[in-house]
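Here comes my example:
=====
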Amino acid sequence: MTQLGPAHVVLGRVTGQPEAAAAAARRGVALARRGAGAVVLAYSLAAAAQVVASADADEAARLLDEARTVVGRCTDPGIAGPYVARVAAQVRPGGPSGGDLVEPLTEREVAVLHYLPTPLSQREIAAALYVSLNTVKTHCRAVFRKLGVGDRRAAVQVARDLGLL
């Protein structure tokens, strides 16, 4: 039954009737909250935010905040992390910004993030920043966690979506 949450959200998105779509999206979130996994819940929350954004920006912001919180607690957010970041970039007034992160990146994490789109290995990034390989690995893990992604390519995409790169 809990897997029906995303189905209601999708139904809400394709009906073409804003009030019915918002109601279906809210039902989807309610179902996902009844025991669905964190990834399903985060996806449902973000999709619902996208559905209700044009009618109720405050509700969309609350849904996105909850989605980012859920993603932040996931050890592996899968597709939900980048999806939540993309929806946040689309829905937030004023466009994407680094302020859309659950937890802001530190100065050193931002420095490492700027090297991620390059072909440099982690060892080469460490040499360029005059730090150890383990320090770069730690910063990469923190960046991935804060952006809600699992790999370097996804981190670069989400960082670009959020205007961090």
